# Entry
Amino acid sequence: MSRPKDDSTPPNASPNQPSAAHATQWLGHPRGLATLFFTEMWERLSYYGMRAILILFMTHAGVEGGLGMTDGRAGAIYGLYTAAVYLLSLPGGWIGDRLLGQRNAVFCGGIVIAAGHFCMALPTIATFYLGLALIVIGTGLLKPNVSAQVGELYPLDAGARRDAGFSLYYMGINIGAFAGPLLCGYLGENVNWHLGFSAAGIGMIFGVIQYRLGGKHLGDAGMLRTTSAERARARRALVAGAVGLSVVALILAALHASGVLHLSPEGFARATGVFIAVLAVVYFASVLFFGHLSKLDRNRVVVIFVFFMSAALFWSGYEQAGSSMNLFAERLTDRILLGWEMPASWLQSVSALFIILLAPVVGALWVWLGSRNPSTPVKFAAGLVLLGCGFFVIAWGSTFTADGNLVSPMWLVVTYFLHTVGELCLSPVGLSSITKLAPRHLVGQMMGTWFMGSALGNLIAGQSAGLVESMPLPRLFGTVAMVTAGAGLLLWMCSGKLRRMIGPVN
# Structure
């Protein structure tokens, strides 16, 4: 979510928060929460609305207004795009903290996102790629910084009220994720693809306007607190990083132009996946062997690595909702209702609807269990097993699609139900567990590994769509089911050992 979904970064509360920002004026919470709620709602509407039609637009033939790409190429681009959204949340949060301030970073990010959607509304290949790049940059600025401001609206001792505020904010995420595919999907599939992209941009503009108008309710939340010297150092670091990336890009372009290196979206996606995985392994190994950690901290870092791998595997399956299962919805699902054909992208709203309905139920279940509440490793294991069960369902349903037969959309609905329950077991505890288990001086870095896992999972999910053409669907979905469910069972068997490695947590 990133997924409908708990894809926000954890807030860093400030001790210098004004009492005005704490005033109870909106549903029992600071009035500024409404500003951030609707900002995130509109941003998620634009993101998930565009994402719902992205792979469909790329794979439709040119005469149908699409780009006429193969499933493999479209899936690679989709995976690179969704992975980059998560990767850029790391420098985006850094820019908000060091250079712009979180409040300005959100405003600038929203404008860049809207510009990206409007670029995609223009029917050229150049503006399509430019639009994707702008949305990635803008989302990287907006996502981590809008979430951080939610925490700053509450005093440090707000306790349960602060948690309730985040739960309400989380509902805004999923309302947007539910509405986006319905609006953009209908316009894109039934009227014009570029009109669907335009609608996403207009939604983001609404979000930016209400964010600016409601800024007076935020108090000091999100204001820049660095000194001029610190900002100068940050600017130098940003320029150095930009120059370094530009040099790498120019070298790759020169090698490609000379024929020494053949760069294709498919190859670049595979290379990026390997790079992320190797980078994660090297980072964790360096921390374990050269981090001068206590035995307990080393054990906990190992557990965080296990969670990283589990999360990457989970998102590699879950995020196929927008790639391989989106293609399944379009090509092999009977979507005729009372003589009217429902847009395939509308099924992208099912997961968000289930989260809105089930999140309070699952949360109440954990409270009701009390001391019997499952440990974090068990919850991760349950998430993976439920994901695998969902893929067993869609693999079963795909056996009835031989010779182009269409199947009921209920196969996808049941799959998304199981996946959503799995997400509610795994995702909400992921960020929380890292903040509790990471060595105090490495919390920020360890948090980055969570987003690296999300990026890797999204990248793999996009590439999986490329196999829809070349691999029988029962085999494709069945393989994912066995791998994810098997990993979940293995994690469950090791949960006792992992719990002992974690030790007591305050």
